[in-house]
Amino acid sequence: MSNLEQDQKQRFRHLFIIDDAEGRRTISLEAATYSIGRDATNSIVLHSKMVSRQHAILLRVTAPETSNFLFRIIDGDLQGKRSTNGLIVNGRRLFSHDLKHGDAIIFGGDVKTKYFVVSNFSDADFDKFCEATDLSMILSQSVNPFQTLVPDDDERQHMSEASLVRMASFPELTPSPILEMDLQGTVTYLNPAAVMQFPDISKEGTAHPMLQGLLQMLQSEHSTKNNFFVREVEMEQRIYEQSIHYIFESDLIRSYVTDITERKRAEEQLRHQAQRESIINRIVQAMRGTMVTAEVLQITVGLLTEALGASYCLIVQINPDGELADHYVSDSAIGCQDLIQSNERFLRHSQEALAQGQQMVFCHSDQNLDLELVSICSQGHIQTLLVTPLLYLQHYLGSISLYSCHPHADSEDAGKGRIWNADERGLVKTIADQCAIAIHQAQLYQQVQDLNTNLAQQVEERTAQLQQKMRELERLNSLKDDFLSTVSHELRTPMSNIKMAIHMLNQFPLDPRQKRYIKILEAECSRETELINDLLDLQRLEAGGNQIRSEPIKIPIWLPRALEPFQSRIKDRELNLKVNCEQTIPTFHCDRISLDRILAELLNNACKYTPKKGEVSLTVQYLEFPQPMLHLQVTNQAEIPEQELPRIFDKFYRVPNADPWKQGGTGLGLALVQKLIDQLAGEITVSSRQGTTIFIVKLPYQSSLSPSSGSH
After folding, report:
1. Is the pLDDT of residue 415 over 60?
2. pLDDT for residue 121
3. Where does residue 530 rank: exposed (0-12), middle (13-18), buried (19+ CB within 10 A)?
């Protein structure tokens, strides 16, 4: 028999055999804690309606100064709430019981289970045991199958009171490692989780990463009368947070260890994702906010340098003759004329490949690199260079160059080149494509301007060219709209992932500072999601893809439901909402979703700009003259300057200095309202004077909408 087989046969196996509505199954108990109940979130799920959702917990308790352990079953959940139908062990109703070999447990008077402790089972024997229907034969054939690890009365008498307390204490049950050592560096206690995760800690002592430097740190901290401190320890590609307490009364150092590797990875992923989204959003805003190519490209070099950790970033435009023209450089490259000249040599060397759309990566250690370029890398301390072409319809318009340099030859990192991974190269390629569109659009725009300069003299011969250029501009605008729509759709998935990551982070114990950061992330995530949804809704409305479904609506019944989402906001803002609705309004045929959105946006707008303790009023009426109309009026205590009224329904427009509370917004709400009302063949008007703003919506009862679905 091999040593492996011998070890397998000497190992005790704690088994839980369950009979419920799903049949019989065997569970090998190996973890420190199990929750038992019918809810799917339990580690042991019982399939019976008689069982409570959180019926019982199973805790592993280690005998003092040995590796032996038993399992204790306790009625109720981890918060101490008892189950509905109780726990019966060997025919007796109990609250807590230390399980022995052969014990029979009944949950909720319905699910029957048995507990066994067996030894001298190989893995093959254990597999047969789990598949067998008759357990008695196998149990009788096993060597010493009735071995129990519960100490008998004689053993309990010889245990010290402190040992008994420790055996049943929380440190033995927690899945997180707990360590103790004295001031001489001797390990005095390890809970089971610590033994399992750090098996060599007793042998290595203060040389182990979890104990290394603790005595020196304690001496330093104790001099400042600080008996508690926290540090992070990296060990075998895992990151641990170690809370360290000096117990003055017993001269012991106790450490509580938490594995925070996943949290650290999630935080890093969130940071990179937020950075990437910030770049895209800011470049999109720059493209939409200006037709000046220089401004867009200058913003781009700064953002790429910051986001990708490059030493320098340069964007070079190619003129129509194929010569290098305008240069845009990051702040770190301002005044570096040698770098600009070196960059031009790299571009000329790889111009053919760049014109074909290839990204080029140059590394100083590449043995195939041209000798002239090797010399340039050496003189400029260039480690790696990523060059991405700006292409539009196979026209080579320029390039983006990202440099990683180490100016100090004796630096530890001097021999390490920056590795541009696939995600980073993809991001640069996406930005390069948008920059190419911006350059080409600016070129077309400039050509249109040149044509208009002499239009009076060349009307007849230039008209055809002008129309062609205008069509091209329209197509480019369509491309830009498609890009906005695509970016909005693509951002939805990472925003969902960010929300899930934030939710997962909230499941871990966090200190106040971490909670504050998570709350900031959550608020920013909600704000970005609102912007994305508004962009998609407006794009769908403008494209005419919004489906209108007419259905009968009883206004007195519909209105209270539509107002429910605003009650908490009204309360938070300490506002007074007055609602006046005629109860005799006839049934109104309309698209319910559109009507809900119109009311929601108007009330949101009123709540946002009304000062605390102010009043917002809503009036709903049926008007017969000059034709049957549904009349909605929203009034709030705020005033819009008269000169701003014509622009408030424009996309992305927000009234200057109208938001003293800095609540933010997308500037899309009223634009969405205007589009929806137009689709419903209605009209909206606004007036603002003497500190009061009034929005009035009129929707016709006899509209062109049919009871069946349709679109406008």
Report:
1. no
2. 63
3. middle
| Integer Cα distance of 70 and 59 in angstroms | 8
Evaluate the omega torsion of the peptide bond into residue 407 and state whether it is cis, within 30 degrees of 0: no
Q: In whole angstroms, what separates CA 260 from the centre of its chain? A: 17
SS3 8: helix
| Per-residue tokens: 283 | 């470049």
The DSSP H or E segment spanning 152 is none
Question: Euclidean distance between the first and final Cα of the chain, in Å?
Answer: 81
Q: What is the fold of 547-711?
A: Heat Shock Protein 90 (3.30.565)
Q: Do β-strands 44-45 and 33-37 pair in parallel, antiparallel, or remain unpaired?
A: parallel
Burial 454-469 (b: 16+ CB within 10 A, else e): eeeeeeeeeeeebeeb
Specify the DSSP element, H or E, that contains 293: helix 293-308
Residue 360 near residue 387 (C-beta atoms within 8 A): yes
Higher pLDDT, 702 or 477: 477
From residue 247, give the alpha-carbon distance in Å to each of 211, 259, 594: 16, 23, 65
pLDDT over 90 (residue 45):
yes
Inter-residue contact 578 to 610 (CB < 8 Å): no
What CATH architecture applies to the domain 290-453?
A: 2-Layer Sandwich (3.30)
Digit-coded pLDDT (tens) for 204-256: 989 999 999 988 887 775 555 667 888 999 998 899 999 888 887 778 888 98
Instruction: Please answer whether residues 593 and 626 qualify as being in contact, where contact means their C-beta atoms are separated by less than 8 angstroms.
Output: no
What does the domain layout of the chain look like in residue ranges? 3-141, 174-259, 290-453, 547-711
Residue 370 reports pLDDT greater than 90:
no
Beta strands in 547-602 (DSSP E): 547-553, 576-581, 588-591
The two structure tokens encoding residue 8: 């397998």
Residue with tokens 């009171």: 161
Peptide bond into 626 cis (omega under 30): yes
| CA separation for the pair 665, 645 (Å, rounded) | 18
pLDDT of residue 431: 87
pLDDT tens digits, one per residue of 288-321 = 766 678 888 888 888 888 878 888 999 998 887 7
Run of H or E residues at 624: none
Checking if the pLDDT of 411 tops 50, the result is no
Q: Which of 332, 185, 267 is nearest to 498 (CA)?
A: 267
Confidence of residue 641 (pLDDT cuts 50, 70, 90): confident
The residues facing 402 across adjacent strands are 313, 386
Q: Are the CB atoms for 397 and 410 separated by under 8 Å?
A: no
β-partners of residue 496 are none
- The CATH class, in words, for 174-259 is alpha beta
Q: Domain 3-141: which topology?
A: Tumour Suppressor Smad4 (2.60.200)
pLDDT at 2: 44
Percentage of residues in the chain with pLDDT exceeding 90? 17
- On the question of pLDDT at 162 being above 60, the answer is no
* CA 288 vs CA 316, 434, 509, 652: distances in Å: 21, 12, 43, 11
